[in-house]
Write a structure and sequence with these properties.
70% helix, 313 residues, single chain, mainly alpha
Length: 313
């Protein structure tokens, strides 16, 4: 597949849609945590999305294969959804949505380190080491600026987001090794159902005493229906159109959307440190994920979406 073969009108529309859709969860979460506890947000997000994707997965005959590998799906669900989504919601009780998204943008950098630890001999070539260094400097600048401010967020909120980065970076490797032959739609639908069951009793003890405001309800609905159910449907179509390697480029778009929404609607500040930190992280992601010269033009058409190395937001 040529480097530019996927740049069709349909490919660009799907790419733009995913760049926006997975850039807005941080905004929705930041709005929702003002009135709802994190377990309630996670439960609402997964239950509503599961209700839609289970129907689609059943029609596609993708549920039975996923259930036959339920242990592997359980591990994936915990690493990709159960742990990251509760930590994101908890962290955003204290962190700006834009900062959270910028830290999450370091996922490909951690993924490169994980690939090396799992035996990829090309993972730590010089250019990738340079990328990792650039990305880490960017994260340090972003976090350091906030922690050194007059009203710094709790350090554990930053630690929670960093744990999310590790989860998002490593879950695709598990899926690639244990679930590569299972339809992705089935894996996601069953995973969402598992997380729903896990959080149902926890959410039941954290329900608000009064009905949330209209904008919070809209934020939760947007998080579930747009950023989860619709997001995975569109992402699978983008994979089919462009291949997972090219689809993974949405990583470079999501933080821009998140920072812009935070600045426009949540009065979050964009400083010089924010811009420089963002550029360092994005440069690091680009360098850290560059393939070896001989492998730069490959055919990704038959690769599964779990190999994209992109964490759901």
């Amino acid at each position: 597949m040529s480097e530019y073969q996927w740049v069709t009108k349909r490919g660009w529309v799907l790419f733009a849609a995913m760049g926006f859709i997975w850039g807005i969860p941080y905004f929705f979460i930041r709005v929702a945590v003002k009135e709802l506890e994190p377990p309630v947000i996670v439960f609402c997000r997964t239950s509503l999305a599961a209700a839609i994707l289970l129907v689609l997965a059943r029609r596609a005959g993708a549920i039975r294969p996923a259930l036959r590998r339920w242990r592997a799906v359980l591990v994936f669900a915990i690493a990709e959804m159960a742990i990251p989504w509760i930590l994101l919601a908890t962290a955003e009780q204290n962190l700006p949505s834009g900062l959270t998204a910028l830290i999450i943008a370091a996922v490909p950098i951690v993924g490169t380190i994980a690939a090396f630890l799992l035996g990829d001999r090309h993972a730590l070539r010089f250019v990738r080491i340079l990328g990792i260094f650039s990305g880490l400097c960017g994260v340090a600048l972003l976090v350091g600026r906030d922690l050194a401010s007059d009203n710094p967020p709790p350090w554990w909120s930053v630690a929670e987001v960093l744990i999310v980065v590790v989860c998002y970076a490593t879950a695709p490797f598990w899926a690639d090794r244990r679930l590569a032959d299972v339809p992705s739609l089935g894996v996601i639908a069953v995973s969402l159902s598992i997380v729903t069951v896990i959080y149902a009793p926890i959410a039941a003890t954290s329900l608000p005493s009064t009905m949330p405001s209209f904008h919070v309800v809209l934020a939760v609905l947007g998080l579930a229906l747009i950023c989860t159910a619709l997001a995975f449907i569109v992402f699978f179509r983008l994979i089919a159109e462009a291949g997972p390697a090219r689809a993974g480029l949405i990583t470079f778009v999501n933080p821009v959307v998140a920072v812009a929404l935070g600045a426009l609607f949540l009065d979050e500040e964009i400083t010089a440190a924010t811009v420089v930190g963002f550029l360092l992280v994005m440069t690091g992601c680009w360098l850290a994920t560059r393939p070896p010269p001989a492998d730069r033009i490959v055919d990704y058409a038959d690769m599964d979406s779990s190999r994209a190395g992109v964490g759901s937001s």
